[in-house]
Amino acid sequence: xxxxxxxxxxxxxxxxxxxxxxxxxxxxxxxxxxxxxxxxxxxxxxxxxxxxxxxxxxxxxxxxxxxxxxxxxxxxxxxxxxxxxxxxxxxxxxxxxxxxxxxxxxxxxxxxxxxxxxxxxxxxxxxxxxxxxxxxxxxxxxxxxxxxxxxxxxxxxxxxxxxxxxxxxxxxxxxxxxxxxxxxxxxxxxxxxxxxxxxxxxxxxxxxxxxxxxxxxxxxxxxxxxxxxxxxxxxxxxxxxxxxxxxxxxxxxxxxxxxxxxxxxxxxxxxxxxxxxxxxxxxxxxxxxxxxxxxxxxxxxxxxxxxxxxxxxxxxxxxxxxxxxxxxxxxxxxxxxxxxxxxxxxxxxxxxxxxxxxxxxxxxxxxxxxxxxxxxxxxxxxxxxxxxxxxxxxxxxxxxxxxxxxxxxxxxxxxxxxxxxxxxxxxxxxxxxxxxxxxxxxxxxxxxxxxxxxxxxxxxxxxxxxxxxxxxxxxxxxxxxxxxxxxxxxxxxxxxxxxxxxxxxxxxxxxxxxxxxxxxxxxxxxxxxxxxxxxxxxxxxxxxxxxxxxxxxxxxxxxxxxxxxxxxxxxxxxxxxxxxxxxxxxxxxxxxxxxxxxxxxxxxxxxxxxxxxxxxxxxxxxxxxxxxxxxxxxxxxxxxxxxxxxxxxxxxxxxxxxxxxxxxxxxxxxxxxxxx
Length: 676
What we know:
- Residues 616-642 are annotated as: Disordered.
- Keywords: Membrane, Transmembrane, Transmembrane helix.
- Residues 8-78 form the Aerotolerance regulator N-terminal domain.
- Residues 90-197 form the VWFA domain.
- This is VWA domain-containing protein.
- The chain is an alpha/beta fold.
- The protein is built from 12 helices and 35 strands.
- It is elongated.
- The model is unreliable at 240-252 and 616-644 (pLDDT under 50).
């Protein structure tokens, strides 16, 4: 219960005035006296019992005092707090932007302690205590405004929908959602409740939207939260680095990384851990000044397909504490050709658009063994080996490089088997696509066992002439014949065969698409014969949160669309593409990040003022609310964490009704002579 005007309590002074009037009232009582001798005793007894006996058994006095007290209470404007008493249309806006995933204290908390969980609890509390006739519309504020329920009265349906709310990590549609809420309440009795942490972009506070109903903001979470974020991170090949030399195990020192860290909290000691393909390759400890950005550099980084940067210690907003980067990808495929010389093969490789680097043996030591040539600085996409594998490639840095790179081996040193005219069969495979080889590719086949990973793709007379497969996660193609043993290089099918081979070998490599905000639209080059594509979470928050694979978007024709939305959960994602023949095609890496604007820690102080000013009237009050003022000087309510919405239910009409009843009773008492 509350009091609207404590100043009216001064009117309570009328109560002792009424009592005083009764004390001074002259009362004459008819008293029979049987003897004049007793008259004096009666007078003395009456004087001894006054003045307080005048107040005994005076029903009219008590009725008048009660009526006066009620009138004073009415002047004080009493009211009671009434929960969920609204009977009209209520619009609840649930902010599910990325900042709602912030934790109240530190990273050891779970998502059940996040602002989103707190908001669900508050929404469910409101729904449980809402009035029976109240119609509730629930709007989800995410990357687009979404009306989940319209004028719903079923509390169970509302609670189920609220429990199903999840965070939206894309760019939140603040202005669009508020505009929708204003349109839904235009021209009717209603009100709007906005459940948010007020961590809105600066421009979101200037809504410019005219509300015709009261607007109230329900604040979620603490007012301030310190946060450190990785704003930028990238890795590139360093200019001027010397190529790797003999004995260099992994071509270290050829890459350079840089990160920009923003610190919104007090000065802190932070740490950056840099991983390359899942292995820790560098760490940096540094001091982040309060409210400033710090640039951290990483030199002499080894080559890796994917780099991950992690910021420690974890803070209350984990979504900006890690970032992914990929090496710059050149347009042309980099092919290393290890051969004693084959002009036809080299030209055919160049026709594919590849950048061909021929590696030959130039020196020999005293024992006649070829010395290992220097490993070029740029790592190859495909290695083609024609003939016998050189001795230097069987160990050391070259052996490690060969194990990590897709290979195409042509010929070898094993004894060959002469072929007579025999039937040539081509299996369905990306390497043999568009080919119809009716004659053997060579007059002699190498008699070598087929490894477990190999799948025959070309047979001659029942004998395997070529096989392909995946070894140690890398595509590998083997031709069991020498090109000089036949006329395959002179046939028009040969350039097509080489192009197919290079394209298939590249399918084991994935191009980095860079960084994108969750849900943003991407342009992805998709082959015409691509049949299916699936986004799979590989690392980061997406993998930790148990995100499910996401099928790629298709056109109405059934073909894959070149316009693909980025996955909706931050983290490292991989797009695996499969052709119509069931074989894998080149895929893509993508680093998905939450909207960086959501990592700001300072709430938008102008948000409440702008919304209430746009509404043209104050928001309804509640207990524990903090008063803020709009442009007209009216008080606007802002709920504290844990508050339930309360409304003032005035008691004036009930008090007036009771006073009228008392007056009727008082008149009846007076008529019956009970006033004395």
